[in-house]
UniProtKB/TrEMBL annotation:
Cellular component, GO, one term: cytoplasm
Keywords, comma-separated and alphabetical: Cytoplasm, GTP-binding, Nucleotide-binding
UniProt-listed InterPro entries: G_CP_dom, GTP-bd, GTP-bd_ortho_bundle_sf, GTP-bd_ribosome_bgen, GTPase_MTG1, P-loop_NTPase
Chain's gene name: ylqF
Single GO biological process annotation from the record: translation
Localisation per UniProt entry: Cytoplasm
GO molecular function: GTP binding; GTPase activity
Function (record text): Required for a late step of 50S ribosomal subunit assembly. Has GTPase activity.
PROSITE patterns associated with the record: G_CP
Protein name, per record: Ribosome biogenesis GTPase A
Domain CP-type G: 10-178
Short name of any one Pfam family annotated for the protein: MMR_HSR1
């Protein structure tokens, strides 16, 4: 399966970000903690040079905690401020504001020396679709979420949100890129649900996921589905049998079994799983 995702949107997304980057002090990048590298847009580092950076490892409740710590250290070594959180439950959200203030300490001190008082930190929130960017913004802003009016560079589809007197967020559309150079990136994004299932071969995707899980998390599939771990097709057959995925005529319903596997992986029922490790990125 060749993974292709939203081709043609890159130019528009980059132009929007370039127009607004001069207005902001900090880039807050939201990624999926289960695939911290694959859920990062590769263009953000170039566009955000010389800006303070905060990386939020969202959906950390679904990820392997040990690997989340490894990824946190990996990104910190690269100069990021890093925080793991679960935007849906609100876990970790209260820690965001102190880290934002720490990340922008130099900017605050520079303003103070120049006699500039009460100019809020402006942070651009970026992230690909389905990493939980909107959920994070709503959790961070809370009921005090208000638009701050027209500002230079703000066009339809973007919104300034005042968190408090110290910080304003610029909400942006999901930043996309048009082609995956590494098809494994596309596969991982598909596994966590960041690519529409309607355009995928879910049976083939489920076989790839089974291969990953049996290699990196031996025993989990047996514990969840009562199957013997072997080749991916045999495991999918066993899941179909054990979950009574039977078509008329008594044939196994591979499509239904694939849907069960993917849904239970995505909602954490199989276990806390991270699909990539920082060691491969060194």
């Amino acid at each position: 399966m060749n993974y292709q995702w939203y081709p043609g949107h890159m130019t528009k997304a980059k132009r929007m970000m370039e127009e607004n980057i001069k207005l902001i002090d900090l880039i807050v990048e939201v990624v999926d903690a289960r695939i911290p590298m694959s859920s990062r847009n590769p263009d953000i580092d170039d566009l955000g040079k010389n800006k303070a950076r905060l990386l939020l490892l969202n959906k950390s409740d679904l990820a392997d905690q040990k690997r989340t710590e490894e990824w946190s250290g990996f990104f910190q070594k690269k100069g990021f401020y890093v925080l793991k959180l679960n935007s849906k439950s609100g876990a970790g959200v209260k820690e965001v504001l102190p880290i934002v203030m720490e990340a922008c300490h130099e900017k605050i001190e520079r303003d103070r020396r120049r006699g500039i008082k009460n100019r809020p930190i402006r942070a651009m929130v970026v992230g690909i679709p389905n990493v939980g960017k909107s959920t994070f913004i709503n959790a961070f802003a809370g009921k005090a979420c208000t638009k701050t009016g027209n500002k230079p560079g703000v066009t339809k589809g973007k919104q300034w949100i005042r968190i408090n007197k110290n910080i304003e967020l610029l909400d942006t559309p999901g930043i996309l890129w048009p082609k995956f150079e590494d098809q494994q990136v596309g596969a991982r994004l598909a596994m966590v649900g960041s690519i529409k299932d309607e355009i995928l071969n879910l049976e083939e995707l489920s076989l790839q996921l089974l291969g990953c899980l049996s290699k990196d998390y031996p025993g989990l599939l047996k514990e969840r589905y009562g199957i013997e771990e072997s080749d991916p097709l045999s495991m999918l057959e066993q899941i179909a049998e054990n979950r009574k995925c039977i078509q008329k005529g008594g044939q196994l319903d591979y499509s239904k079994a694939a849907n069960i596997l993917l849904e239970e992986f995505r909602n954490g029922k199989i276990g806390k799983i991270t699909l990539e490790r920082p060691l491969a990125q060194e």
